[in-house]
Amino acid sequence: MGIELGLTRITNLLAKLGNPHLTSNFIHVAGTNGKGSVCAYLSSILVQGTPFKIGRFTSPHLIYRHDSVTLNNKPVGRDLFTSVEGEIKKINETFKIGATEFEILTAIAFKIFNLEKVDIAVMEVGLGGIEDSTNVITPAIVKNNQILEKGVLVTGITKIGMDHENILGSTLKEIASQKAGIIKNDVPNVVDGSNEHQVLQLIRDVSEKHHSENYEVNPTSNKIHTSFGVINKETSPLKGDYQLQNLSIALKIIDILSPIFLQTYHIKLTKEHIQEGVLKTSWPGRLQSYTYVTSTGVNKSLLLDGAHNGSASRALKKYIDETYNGEPITFIIAVTKGKDLNPLLSQLIKETDQIIVTSFGKVDGMPWIKANEIEDLKKESLKYTKNVKGNPNVIDILENLEDDRNIIVCGSLYLVGELLRLQEDV
Predict the structure, then answer these.
(1) Contact 252, 232 (CB under 8 A)
(2) Which Gene Ontology BP terms does the record give (predicted)?
(3) How far is CA 276 from the centre of its chain?
(4) Can you list the domains of the chain with their CATH numbers?
């Protein structure tokens, strides 16, 4: 069973596990693009600035499945992950709960956070929001900045665009409605203020209904004003102009949490902690400069980016225009089956570019994910450039690529992850 929204199965599964999701505080983040970056900023800042044990759950994994769950910014050990996974799968089968692979993965994260006594967990929504399995977490009760009952302390919503229309809805408003489903009673919410007006209005309405204080962040320069002083986006190692919005969301969330930490735990965050956290943020596979070493020892410079939809493609295109001065580019592209290719390719490809379409193998723990057929990709790619080739093996492509163009690997995070894993295994 692949993607199937709903909270009944995950609720039943967690009940059999002793409700491990009720023992930590949470930050819950939804959105179409940028939510992983926001989670990365948050966990890095919290690890640098507090004595808390910080958990993070993001999906899909980049290289290995246990990468989805981190403790203090380090992936959990494979043995711990496998042990918890075995226990949860046994319960799922014994009680015939019928949980999906993603629901089992979510339960693994909650159980590990419980076992490891995680103080604060940063949770990225898997798909949508309102019926995503991460949305089983409940609001914290906070009075006068004092935590009386653990739960979700703050929610965040990043940029919302068209994606997964077959599941979330065919209009931006329908998709936004799904994402806004993470907004909870009396829990403050932070939203990317550069979203379209109809999205912002919907989020305002949902926030009002839930008595949630709603903050819209839309910085006008790289200098982000916070209660700690000005934080400069230029100190972030994450590339791309859009990271200004993502960092602003993360910093506003930290602003909201700061007085709660002080009142409840007597922990004072400082500007130095936050700057250090921003500086140490890592989120590979997104505008990542990477050196591929061939079997003969030749270094090839690549840009890796998981861009897979229209809004991510626009952001990648903007970075390309600012970085490569119109030079021809070789794109190595694979796309998940079922994706509309036009929003990705139409904004990205120019006639002088070369496209090498490729594939990726089975995705661990996600048997429903498959790569688009190479011939279909070639046919679609020829609409944008006549220089199109196909090769199912990304390593073979890189080993034999002889021209001196800039090389960008994109179209799917699964392709990027496979490349990194294969290179790591060499």
Answers:
(1) no
(2) one-carbon metabolic process
(3) 21
(4) 8-279 (3.40.1190.10), 288-425 (3.90.190.20)
